[in-house]
Structures are given as structure tokens and as C-alpha cells.
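User: Could you check the structure of this?
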Amino acid sequence: MADSTALRVADLPQNAPTVFEIRPEGETLTALAQELGLNALRKLRFAGEIRASGKRDWSLQATLGATVVQDCVVTLEPVTTRIDQKVERRYLAGFEDPGEEEAEMPEDETSEALGSHIDPFAVMVEALSLAIPAYPRKDGEALGEAVFTAPGVAPMRDEDTKPFAALAALKDQLKTDD
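Assistant: Sure, the predicted C-alpha cells are below.
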């Protein structure tokens, strides 16, 4: 998708931050939009620094900025959303991965194991995918209730699925019978 932005940890200076700025354009933006299921991706910028944290750990702090275009979940019309957020990752040399399929999420979701490289482009893609609205809506649009049924059959509504709705209806019926 893009030239590798991975930085080899052994080559990073211990006493000064390594500054980076990524501004993908053209085909890279198109490919990212397609990968993330977006109609369009514009003005993507990821800028920050990587610095040593202690003797063996590293931290990445950056700002993510992007404009994404998605379909509204109600009207299917294009919705444009501006994303501006801080991104932080901590790369720990002594990070212990539980290695189990079902493991509890750690309290600090910004920490991960330190590998041989730190890739700001990969962090940008991950942060962007997490920041994209899951259910984009145009302003003022709300998802109403859709009712479908066969002709001559009473439709089932949301209220009918509530566990005590039938009991309440039976109680009301008993009151009117008395």
C-alpha cells in the first residue's frame, strides 16, 4: 500500500525523539479507503514522535487527523466525518502476552510487546480504523421502526418482545373480565 515506514528500534536514538509525519495521498488513500470500507478518505495526516521510555521501552505519541466519507445507516446518503484525536502506544520490552485465545483485555490498551521495528503507518491505520464511526448518520436522521408481516397477520412490534408484555396484557384482560 505504501512504502514501509517501519523504524528499526536498534537504530533509534536513546536521547532524542524521532519525529515523523505521514500524509498519504492518491492511490494510498484510495487503497486505505477501500480496505476500511469507506466511500472516500481525505486529508489523512499522522504526525508525532517516538522516544525512549526508560532503558528498554519506547513510546509513540501522535495526532491523527482525517476526513472520512461513509454511507448513512438510515438514508444511505454520504456522511462526512472529521476525525482528530491523540494516539499513544507504549512498546514494552517485558510485555507478557497471555497467548490464550480467550484472555482478558489488559487495563492499559495502549501497551504492546516491543518488537524489532515500530511502524507508524501501521499504528495510523489501526487508530483510524478504531476512530471511524460504526453507524454514521446524517444530522437529524433516526432509525425508525420497520414492520413487516404477511397479509392478514398482526405484525410483531418491539413492545411484543419484552418479557413481561404478555403478563401485563393478561393482567389487564383479567381486570376487565371482573
